[in-house]
Amino acid sequence: PSVPSRHGAVKAEDTFKTSPFHLDLWFYFTLQNWVLDFGRPIAMIILPLEWFPLNKPSAGDYFHMAYNVITPFLLLKLIERSPKTLPRSMVYVSIITFVMGASIHLVGDSVNHRLIFSGYQHHLSVRENPIIRNLKPETLIDSFELLYYYDEYLGHSMWYIPFFLILFIYFTGCFTPAAGQGRMPLAALLLVGPSSLYYWYLVTEGQIFILYIFTFFAMMALVMHQRRKGLVLDSNGLFLFLSFILTLLLIAAWVGWLWNDKTLRKKYPGVIYIPEPWAFYTLHMSNLHAAK
């Protein structure tokens, strides 16, 4: 028998262990994603501005701070429950990078969303925004573009790449030789919808379709490879895999709905056209916010 290792060696005795469906972790994971990530810009908009002045953190910022603490904790707990010993060093580095990227995003996203109150329009580029293009001196525009880079590019990359990597690492341990273990309980079926809808928001708003689709293809390849060995997904792996499948269908429906939107087409040129929900909001629903 192999000697147990804390840094990635697979133990012989845990090769074919299976895990029950982690209802508590998946429920908390889905709930906090909806409340602390999707809900943070909504909380910032609907709560009275007098409670959170523009020169202070908003309610959404506090949501983001909580997300940056709770999410890596839940990811670590998920890894701990894997029936196989996974590469710990890679997990630790991914978690550290995740926290750093999400923290960078916290600052950039806070300022960018606060700019909505000053008339900033997310469906336009930084230099095309009326409140930005007339700034003097013009070097201030470069500073806002730097802020946008930290928010939309660097922050998103350091946040989402390790996030999907950890999910995939966990997914590699979700296989069992017992076909009966691959059945999903009713609770898992009920969670698939909310989980998939959140991943749709994550991919579209984060503009990370390439990262998502590569992760999905890697999961498909792994499923086919393990099937040749007579292994099938357990209930946790099946839940994650079905969530990703439904996410792809939701993304396709979203793109199809906005396919002929000329303004969003200008904002998102190129072969991959996936508009951000908040760009759609500022373009088509900002009048509701202005009336409020």
Automatic annotation (TrEMBL):
Gene Ontology CC, one term: membrane
GO biological process terms, semicolon-separated: lysosome organization
InterPro entries: CLN6
Keywords, comma-separated and alphabetical: Membrane, Transmembrane, Transmembrane helix
Entry keyword annotation includes Transmembrane helix: yes
Sequence intervals crossing the membrane: 62-79, 91-108, 159-179, 186-202, 208-225, 237-259
Protein name: CLN6 protein
Species, as recorded: Irena cyanogastra
